[in-house]
Design goal:
46% of the residues lie in helices and 25% in strands. With 149 residues, the chain is α+β, with helices and mostly antiparallel strands.
């Protein structure tokens, strides 16, 4: 599993489960067939900008998108490494990604905060981006192409 795929799985895992420690996250990854060390998980956590938040009487990992308005270099690199193709039709943009990376790539799109983007939907390897009007599609495509260069 490539780094982008592993990091996408990490984002999925912390969304589904209350992951309290790096060791617990590494165990989840090993359960799905990814042989990782605690050091690798630690780097991934740092690159993804994960933080610990209170959850009842314990703490769990969470994505810090509301606390970090700027795009991190790591998230931009993850987007670049993930995207395979970008195509549009009317007011829709479809982005094909490597398997398992669409969710992480879509989170970068959401963080762009572009008013032209009404929303994103991510599957395993496909992102659907809904644009507010056909006339805004070229602006959004230009932004995506700028990021992937």
């Amino acid at each position: 599993m490539k780094r982008a795929q592993r990091q996408s799985k990490i984002l999925d895992l912390i969304t589904k489960y209350d992951v309290e420690t790096q060791e617990e996250l590494a165990a989840f990854l090993r359960d799905i067939g990814e042989n990782v060390t605690q050091a690798t998980v630690s780097r991934d956590i740092k690159e993804l900008g994960l933080i610990k938040v209170a959850s009842g009487n314990k703490y769990r990992y969470s994505y810090a998108e509301k606390h970090e308005p700027k795009l991190s270099v790591k998230m931009v690199n993850l987007f670049k490494e993930s995207v395979v193709t970008i195509a549009s039709s009317q007011n829709l943009i479809v982005i094909k990604t490597l398997a398992g990376t669409a969710s992480a790539a879509a989170s970068l799109i959401d963080k762009l905060g572009m008013i032209e983007i009404l929303g994103t939907v991510a599957g395993d390897d496909t992102i659907l981006v809904v644009i507010n009007g056909e006339d805004n599609v070229s602006k959004v495509l230009d932004k995506f192409n700028q990021i992937t260069k």
